[in-house]
Specification:
This protein is mainly alpha-helical. It has one domain (about 15-20, about 30-260). Helices cover about 75% and strands about 0% of the residues. The protein is built from twelve helices and no strands. It has helices at about 1-5, 10-20, 30-50, 60-80, 90-95, 100-130, 135-165, 165-180, 190-205, 205-220, 230-250, 255-260. Helix 4 (about 60-80) runs antiparallel to helix 6 and helix 7 packs parallel to helix 11. The protein is globular, with a radius of gyration of 19 Å.
């Protein structure tokens, strides 16, 4: 950590470059940060609210409060898995902590999340009239928790992808499955009714279920709030994944230059 802090200026430059290059030569530029989730929101609203007839008050707000945080997960993991292989030329020429590349991708995706959450908060105020103060106090903590979880996952996949390039394709498939298993488009109360108490506990092993539930509690207010036990489990799980992923990266990244 101390070594990474010594390169904080480089980290800032890499995050800035990632944000600038991602939307270079596009007509809408940075507006794609908002246009992509809005487009998905319209599609899912049409499918689940009109065709499938999911009965939830303020379904559009319900959907966007789960979709935007999960898109942070999807972008960070999908792009983070390729963060080392896409910078192979730089890695082979200059030495600096290799962790900077996965961190750069995760932080640039985090910036997009923060921008999008401002609009989510504005829409929530328009629909609900207010956001609970307790929710605003919890928001930085849930963002930090999600970021730690994603960093651990990105550390693992980015390193493995150097040795097995199939990982970046497998990750794309896994992210689609993860989205549908994280209750992004449907309420948890429906899952509980369909699965029963025992299987619902197994469903909640997925940490994104708890994380998205907290986001929805903050901005939507109608979601089933996870129990203290599930929140504690998600916190411990995310911290463990973060440190295990980082340790795995430190060990496996020693021969990255040679493999590339």
């Amino acid at each position: 950590m101390k070594e990474i802090l010594q390169y904080k200026e480089l980290l800032y430059f890499l995050v800035h470059k990632e944000l600038r290059v991602r939307y270079r030569n596009t007509f809408f530029g940075y507006f794609w940060t908002l246009l992509e989730p809005l487009g998905l929101m319209l599609i899912f609203t049409l499918v689940f609210s009109i065709i499938a007839r999911v009965t939830i008050d303020n379904y559009t707000l319900f959907l966007v409060t789960g979709l935007i945080p999960f898109m942070y997960t999807q972008h960070a993991v999908s792009r983070g898995a390729k963060s080392l292989t896409s910078n192979s030329s730089l890695i082979k020429k200059v030495y600096f902590p290799r962790e900077l590349f996965p961190i750069t991708i995760t932080f640039s995706s985090l910036v997009n999340l923060l921008i999008s959450l401002i609009l989510v908060a504005a829409y929530s105020l328009y629909v609900n009239g207010s956001i609970p103060l307790m929710g605003l106090a919890v928001l930085p903590l849930v963002i930090l928790l999600q970021t730690m979880l994603l960093l651990g996952i990105v550390f693992f996949f980015s390193c493995i992808n150097v040795y097995f390039r199939d990982i970046e394709f497998i990750v794309g498939l896994l992210m689609r499955g993860w989205m549908y298993m994280s209750a992004v488009m449907y309420p948890l109360i429906q899952v509980k009714e369909q699965l029963g108490e025992s299987y619902f506990m197994i469903f909640q092993i997925n940490p994104m279920v708890t994380i998205l539930s907290i986001y929805r509690w903050i901005f939507h207010g109608g979601e089933l709030l996870p129990t203290f036990g599930m929140i504690a489990y998600t916190v411990v799980f995310s911290i463990v994944i973060f440190f295990v992923g980082w340790r795995f990266f430190r060990v496996m990244s020693r021969k990255i230059g040679e493999v590339m």
